[in-house]
């Protein structure tokens, strides 16, 4: 693959990711996910999206790297830590205990997000 074709492919991938970001975000539960469900967080353009999600205990959260460069997902409390995620790699963690779980990318510390785990009322 030539450099020019690689750049064009990268540009097309970013355009496609940007076009899909809003519809995907609309389909991703930002709050109220039930136990046993999976919530997806996209890594695109050096951001986690959505930045904050609220889930029930027992919910799996999956991060997918949509960028052309590597990222990680690391909790501030060191509860979870992904390997380095290349393009389209995924990392999942199941949150069992209520609480707030801030996380960041260890390669780009300005990238931050938070998972809030709340037990259902009742």
UniProtKB/TrEMBL annotation:
Pfam families in the cross-refs: Cupredoxin_1 (PF13473)
Alphabetical keyword list: Signal
Organism: Methylobacterium brachythecii
Entry protein name: Amicyanin
InterPro entries, A to Z: Amicyanin, Cupredoxin, EfeO_Cupredoxin, ET_Amicyanin
Keyword Signal: yes
Domain EfeO-type cupredoxin-like: 17-117
Residues in the signal sequence: 1-35
Superkingdom of the source species: Bacteria
């Amino acid at each position: 693959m030539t450099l020019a074709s690689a750049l064009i492919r990268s540009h097309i991938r970013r355009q496609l990711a940007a076009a899909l970001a809003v519809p995907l975000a609309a389909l991703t539960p930002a709050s109220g996910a039930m136990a046993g469900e999976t919530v997806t967080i996209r890594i695109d353009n050096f951001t986690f999206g959505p930045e904050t999600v609220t889930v029930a205990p027992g919910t799996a959260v999956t991060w997918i790297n949509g960028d052309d460069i590597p990222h990680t997902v690391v909790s501030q409390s060191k509860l979870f830590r992904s390997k380095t995620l290349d393009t389209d790699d995924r990392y999942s963690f199941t949150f069992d205990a209520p609480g707030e779980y801030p996380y960041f990318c260890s390669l780009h510390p300005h990238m931050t997000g938070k998972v809030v785990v709340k037990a259902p009322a009742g």
